[in-house]
UniProtKB/TrEMBL annotation:
<protein>
    <recommendedName>
        <fullName>Inositol-1-monophosphatase</fullName>
        <ecNumber>3.1.3.25</ecNumber>
    </recommendedName>
</protein>
<dbReference type="InterPro" id="IPR022337">
    <property type="entry name" value="Inositol_monophosphatase_SuhB"/>
</dbReference>
<keyword id="KW-0378">Hydrolase</keyword>
<comment type="similarity">
    <text>Belongs to the inositol monophosphatase superfamily.</text>
</comment>
<dbReference type="InterPro" id="IPR020583">
    <property type="entry name" value="Inositol_monoP_metal-BS"/>
</dbReference>
<keyword id="KW-0460">Magnesium</keyword>
<dbReference type="GO" id="GO:0052834">
    <property type="term" value="F:inositol monophosphate phosphatase activity"/>
</dbReference>
<dbReference type="Pfam" id="PF00459">
    <property type="entry name" value="Inositol_P"/>
</dbReference>
<keyword id="KW-0479">Metal-binding</keyword>
<dbReference type="InterPro" id="IPR033942">
    <property type="entry name" value="IMPase"/>
</dbReference>
<dbReference type="InterPro" id="IPR000760">
    <property type="entry name" value="Inositol_monophosphatase-like"/>
</dbReference>
<dbReference type="InterPro" id="IPR020550">
    <property type="entry name" value="Inositol_monophosphatase_CS"/>
</dbReference>
Length: 267
């Protein structure tokens, strides 16, 4: 089946923009008593669930034959056998949202035969729409974006995500974090992997790393970084970062240094 992925990316961005308006409205009156726990420190709210419902309904109109992989569990007939699969995080950064910290995103990507072809990250607080198409570049609010040309880790700003439910590798992670503290301009923890990846693509930081990630956390962001000229891999290999549960993203120039810094302590 032949699709106009560029037009689809615009349609997807419009859907995410409209859905983001719902999230912003709910943020003004959100009641923290309504949150639920999927696990220890793993929060979900009716806003996540309603956002996902709206996205799925809109995506079914855009591409009826596609399956779904979503954070809150809505799927198509068999998401693993469909030619096209939407990978959705309706509210990446739920903990930020619950606490009123304005860094959270809608993240939606389309996969064709396990290859990322379209991705949109809508950063709700800043109302920024990041969009990418395989082979077609990356954009923020329809303006082209590109990773930075910083060539050394020592001159880079790095983003990461802290463990919040699986602490088995905490000691290794803290050693890695300490290594980046001493080898970079600093380390930031925004609370949304989708935002982290979008910001690498837009040149706001040079690199990002995190483990215990899910495909819906990173799918759109991976495509953004790659189409903006960057590089995305697993921690120590060039393995698939989409389903690999760990990820290093960079402007490409500092990638080897980042992997080396992680490799000193990661087993």
């Amino acid at each position: 089946m032949s699709l106009d992925f560029t037009q689809l990316s615009h349609d997807l961005a419009a859907l995410c923009r409209t859905t983001a308006e719902f999230i912003r409205e709910e943020a003004t009156t959100f009641n923290r008593a309504k949150i639920e726990h999927k696990g220890v420190h793993d929060l979900v709210s009716y806003v996540d669930q309603e956002t996902e419902r709206r996205l799925v309904a809109g995506l079914r109109q855009l591409l009826p034959e596609a399956g779904f992989i979503t954070e809150e569990g809505t799927t198509g007939p068999d998401a693993h056998t469909e030619e096209f699969i939407w990978i959705i995080d309706p509210l990446d950064g739920t903990t930020n949202f619950v606490h009123g910290l304005p860094v959270y995103c809608i993240s939606v990507a389309l996969v064709q035969h396990r290859e990322l072809v379209v991705g949109v990250v809508h950063e709700v607080g800043r109302d920024e729409s990041f969009r990418a198409v395989r082979g077609g570049g990356a954009f923020c609010n329809d303006q082209p974006i590109h990773v930075t040309d910083v060539a050394e880790l020592n001159n880079s700003l790095i983003a990461t995500g802290f463990p919040y439910k699986d602490f088995g590798k905490m000691d290794d992670f803290l050693k890695i974090l300490g290594s980046f503290f001493t080898r970079s301009h600093g380390v930031r923890r925004l609370g949304s992997a989708a935002a982290d990846l979008a910001y690498v693509a837009a040149g706001r930081c040079e690199g990002f790393f995190e483990f215990n990630l899910n495909s819906y956390d990173v799918a759109a962001g991976i495509l953004l970084v790659r189409e903006a000229g960057g590089h995305v891999t697993q921690f120590l290999t060039d393995g698939d970062p989409l389903f690999g549960r760990e990820l290093v993203a960079s402007n490409g120039l500092i990638h080897a240094e980042m992997q080396a810094a992680i490799g000193e302590f990661w087993q």
